[in-house]
Each structure stands twice: as C-alpha cells, then as structure tokens.
Input
Amino acid sequence: MKKIGLFGGTFDPVHLGHEAMVREALAWGLDRVVVMPCYLSPHKLPSPDHEAPTSSEHRYRMLQKAFQGMERVEISRYEIDREGPSYTWQTLDYLQNSRPESRWFLIIGLDQYSALPHWHRFGEWSKRVDFLVFKRKGVALPEKDGIYSDLQCQWPEVEIPEVSGTEIRLRVRQGLALEGLVGLGVAAYIKQQNLYLSAARSG
Output
C-alpha cells in the first residue's frame, strides 16, 4: 500500500517553508505528495480582515516552479477547478475514492494542528486519515485529550524554516529582496507577473 501525503493550502505564494515540508515528508517515508492549492480557504474568506487571494492560476504556476523536477510531487488542480470554498473532507472523499489502495497522510504544521477542531466536519473525516505534523519552534503542543485522543499522528523530528506569506507580499510591495524566502523560479515569476505590488489582490 502506497503512503501518499496531501499538502493543502493557499500558497500565496509558495515559499521555502512549504518546500521544506514536502521534502521532509518524502524523506520521512511517504511515497508521494499531492500538493493541493485551494481555490478559496474557508478559514480566510474575503472580508475586511482577509484580502482575496491571488488568482488560482498564478498560485498553481508558482507551485509548478517550486516543485519542478521532483518526480514524487504532484500538483493537483482539483480544488481550484471546483471553485468555491475548499473543504478538506471533500478533497479526501475525492482522493480516497479515486485511489482506494493508498494510505493518506494529511501534512500540516503545528498551527493547523491546533486549529483542527474548527475544521469543517472534522469529527466525520479525521479517523479516515493519518496526520503528519511538523512542529514549530517555541509553540507548545495541545493536550492530547478530547478530539485529539483518537487521531493517528506522526511527528517528524525536523525543523522547518519559519517563512510568512504576509511578509513576502509586504517585501514585494516595499521593493525588498526575497532571497531565503522563496525559490529562484518563484521569485522570477512574481517579478515577471508583477504580483503583490498592491495590497488589494484579485480572486
């Protein structure tokens, strides 16, 4: 049985922290990682507090740049082609039905792990997937009681670079370098497409 990781997110833009998580997930023992850019995160719906994300096509192309040449990484269009808010339970239904012979691992960071009880229909799908959780320096683990007690979790002993998409977008607007934050191909794409030059982003 193949072990496949699902790594979802807005990826606005994909950065070196994301790339490190995928590489470490493969090194940990996954056979393949499916990177799934969402069309619209239900946790970040456009509002006065959350700007609309950069267009899904730009985010998809940046992911292609970031993981170019990595044969065991697949960039999926499933959520962006579905449009609307992207829910993990729907994506898992699709993936598990289309590849029933595989064992699925949801790749997340500790911040997402702490927020799992707030994910849509979490109690219904959480037992159908394993969790590969990357720790964050200085962030305490939640108590493993209640909803966490039944989760199948793996905790790779690695340190992931701390990179912020918000910081990257701000640096672009300020004309600052992105060295050490995004890959060269992604940096070139951002410059070529004039992304993140204004605070307002179109969906």
In short: Helices lie at 16-28, 56-66, 78-82, 88-98, 110-115, 122-125, 165-173, 184-192. The mean pLDDT is 90.
